[in-house]
Amino acid sequence: MTFMPATPPVRSSRQSSLFPYLALIVGILALGMSAIFVRWADAPGPITAFYRLLISSLILTPFFIARCRPRCAVTRATFHFPVWGGILTALDLALWNSSLFYTTAANATLLNSTAPLWVALGAWLVFRERLTKTFWIGLSIALAGATLIVGFDFLTHISIGFGDLLASASGIFYGAYFLVTQRGREHFDSLSYIWLVSVSACMGLGILNIGMGNSFTGYSAQTWLVFCGAAIVSQIIGYIAVSYALGHLPASVVSPSMIGQPIMTAIFAIPFLGEIPNAIQLIGGFIALTGIFLVNRAYHHNRNQSEILTIN
Questions:
Q1: What distance in Å separates the CA atoms of residue 129 and residue 299, rounded to the nearest whole number?
Q2: Residue 6 falls within a domain, yes or no?
Q3: Dist CA 79 CA 174 (whole Å)
Q4: Which of 309 and 73 is assigned the larger pLDDT?
Q5: Angle CA(84)–CA(244)–CA(299) in degrees, nearest 5?
Q6: Could you tell me if residue 295 is inside a domain?
Q7: pTM metric for this prediction
C-alpha cells in the first residue's frame, strides 16, 4: 500500500508516477545479472539455483510471517498453485543454469525469454483465449530468430547448440510457471506467493541436485558470495522491483519491457564474461526480440479487451 497525501504537490505527483518506471528499470538490470552470477559461481548450475532460492527464502521469511499474522491466505484449496509454481521454477532454473555452461549468456537468456510465446499458446490451448493475427505474426518472427541462433550454433559447435536447446526448454517451463501464477495470484499477495514458490522450488532443486549427485558443500568463499549476490540482486531485488512495477503499471507496459533482460545480459557479458556477440547472434537476437515484443503486445491487448467486454 502506497501512502498518498490528500493534495500532493506537482513534484510529488511526478515522482510517484516516475518511481514505478525506475523500479522496472532496476528489476530489468537485476535480472540481467542472473546469467553472470551463474557463470561466476564455481558450482553446477542447479546448485547455484538452489542457493539463490534458499538464501532469498530465508531473507524473506520474517516478512512472510509478518504478512501472514493478520490473515494467512494459504488454504488447502489454493496451496497447489505455489507448489506447482515452485516445481516449474525448479525445472526452469535447473535447465537454464545448466545451459549457461554450454552456450553464451546472451543466447541462454534470450531463448529463456521466449516464455511469452508459450504463455500465449498455453492460454489459447488451456483457457481458450483468442489470439490475434498480430500474435501469430510475432510468433513466426520470434521462432525464426530463435531457429537462426540455434541452427547456426549447431553447425558451429554441437555443445553450443545443446545449450541452446536446454535454454529453449527452460523457456517452456518458465511460460508454464506464468500460466500457473496467472491463476495463483488471484488468491495470494505478491510477497506470499513469491515466498511459497521459492520454498517449493528450493525443495524441488534439492531433490534434483541429490539425484544428480551434486555436492552442497566444499565451495570457495568467492562462490558463496556469488550465491548471496544471486539471491539478493537477481531474486529479491529483481523480482520485487518487477512485482512493484506490475502493481503500478499495466502489464501491457511491463511485459514487453522485459525483453530488456536479454539485452542487458548481452551487454553485461561483454565486460564481465568477455563474450562478444557475433553477427548471426545479433541478427537472430534482433529478429527474436521483435517477435517477442509483438507477441507480448498482442497478448496483453487481447486480455485487456476481454476484461473490458467482461466488465461491460
A1: 9
A2: no
A3: 19
A4: 73
A5: 65
A6: yes
A7: 0.86
pLDDT 10s digits, 183-226? 887 788 778 888 999 999 999 999 999 999 999 999 999 999 99
Residues spanned by the domain of 141: 23-311
The residues, any chain, with a CB within 8 Å of residue 144's CB and separated by 6 or more, are: 287, 288, 291
Distances (CA, A) of 125 to 119, 172, 181, 276: 10, 14, 17, 39
CA separation (Å) from 252 to 57, 85, 142? 29, 22, 18
φ and ψ at residue 150, rounded to 5 degrees? -65, -45
Assigned domain for 146 exists:
yes
**Ramachandran assignment for 23, one of left (phi > 0), alpha (psi -120 to 50 degrees), beta (any other):** alpha
104 or 70, which is more confident: 104
Identify which has the larger pLDDT, 94 or 157: 94
Rounded CA-CA distance 15/123 in Å is 36
d(CA 28, CA 267): 12
What does the alpha-carbon distance between residue 196 and residue 233 come to, in Å, rounded to a whole number?
A: 19
CA-based nearest residue to 103, from 255, 262, 292: 262
Alpha carbon 258 to its chain centroid, in Å, reads: 9
**In this predicted model, what pLDDT tens digit does every residue of 277-312 receive, in sequence order?**
999 999 999 999 999 888 877 776 666 655 433 333
Q: How far apart are CA 237 and CA 29, in angstroms?
A: 10
pLDDT at 312: 31
Q: Does some domain include residue 280?
A: yes
What's residue 79's pLDDT? 85
Given a cut of 90, is residue 275 above it in pLDDT? yes
Looking at the structure of the chain, the number of domains it has is 1
Longest dimension (CA), the chain: 63
Q: For residues 48 and 226, is the Cβ–Cβ distance under 8 A?
A: yes
What is the rounded distance in angstroms from the CA atom of residue 153 to the CA atom of residue 107? Answer: 10
